[in-house]
Amino acid sequence: MANPARILVVDDEPDLRSLYELTLLREGYQIATAENLQEARALLAEQIFDVMITDMRLPDGLGMALITELKNQMRKERCVVITAYGSTQNAVEALKAGAFDYLTKPVDLKQFRSVIATAVRSHPAALISEPSPLRSAPLTASGALGERALGRLIGRSDCMQQVKERILKVATSMAPVMVTGESGTGKELVAYAIHANSHRAKGPWVAVNCSAIPENLLEAEFFGAKKGAYTGAQQDREGFFQAARGGTLFLDEIGDLPLAMQSKLLRAIQERRIRALGSTQEELVDVRIVSATHKDLAQEVHDGHFRQDLFYRLNVIDMVIAPLRERAEDLPDLCEALLTRIAEESSIAVPHLAGSALDYLTRLPLPGNVRELENLLYRAVALGDGQDLQIDAPTVRMPEPREGTPTSSSPSASLPTDLQHHLDKLERDILLRTLQATNFNRTAAALQLGLSLRQIRYRIARLQIEVPSTSEPGDELD
Hints:
This protein is α/β, with parallel strands linked by helices. The protein has four domains: about 5-120, Response regulator (Rossmann fold, 3-Layer(aba) Sandwich), CATH 3.40.50; about 145-320, Rossmann fold, CATH 3.40.50.300; about 325-385, Helicase, Ruva Protein, domain 3 (Orthogonal Bundle), CATH 1.10.8; about 420-475, Arc Repressor Mutant, subunit A, CATH 1.10.10. About 40% of the residues lie in helices and about 10% in strands. It has 19 helices and 14 strands. A five-stranded parallel beta sheet has the order 2-1-3-6-7, sandwiched between helices. Strand 1, helix 1 (about 15-25) and strand 2 form a beta-alpha-beta unit. It starts with 5 loop residues before the first strand and ends in a 16-residue tail after the last helix.
């Protein structure tokens, strides 16, 4: 039978210290207690623990000092900090300093047991017997799932190697991670690699595109709904938070959430409790949040489009993914990997990319990054003759002006007063004409426009284009 986990409890209030100790003893752990920094440091010098729980404020200083010291000594203890209710900034600072997780007072004992159990499970299997200032072994992926997830991040450039190293570092805590980068850089792949290399890898992975959910359905989608909570709710349904219990909830395009929903999300993250629509009871949720956006959220906060408190709560650890134009040395490996996948999907031999084509790709700006590169290669394979692939950037034909419509050279032409609305109308017209020309075959339309199936689906939904509900081959694979 494995030895019970050893836990150090640091709190200056005797009643709370005893409560934590008794609760953990009932769970079968070995417990040591300290009432201040001095006693805690003495115990840490004598032995190694699996988990340290510390109050933020102690008689002789802040519990944060212990977390910083353990991190500097490269100790393996998982640190859980207890902060006062509403002290979001303290919790964020603790996570940034290296804490595994945090709890707020008054501590809910059910949540307390859950957080400590998670911290114990996440501790490295092989513990050293004595504190050591020596540098730890190089970071490695945790298991086959983690290795495969890292392997999908193609590239040997310095920036990609740094991303992989950072993934392995941040995967070991519960701290929220914000992944930022331009569209098509692989933010979801990075987020999944964090999940796959964490102690939650065996738990669910729930990915949510915040920009694709109608505003009136957001609360029900996130928190679930009880039967009869709204028209059409014929049975209880779980939301994203319930579905991700014990795993990771990935919130893609978080910058597109409306302000009203941002407030509700902030409360759910801080309190770790949610209330389903139509329910009078709150329930605890155990999820790790990883979010992503292509927007400059700091600027969105400045412009009043994103809550500052939610930004700080989500951006505890930030990961910036470089655009493809800044890592051109990764192009050969990316092309090889993408062509291999395209060949497997099409049941053909892996095409050869001519050297001239690769040189051409390195000169393209590729604002769509890896996603645009993939589209170009799909197009080249589809239109190629089986010989060396040649790349030609697709051009999108603008709709011909209708009779009587003023053109830009016409004296009566006027500039649009709402540019986004004007561009949306043009894009909708192009998509609709292309879909009609392909008998609403989304795959064929996407190929003709140089888009992926996912991209054209997103645009169809955003621009509210009605498409016949008939399925087409390959849709279910996207």
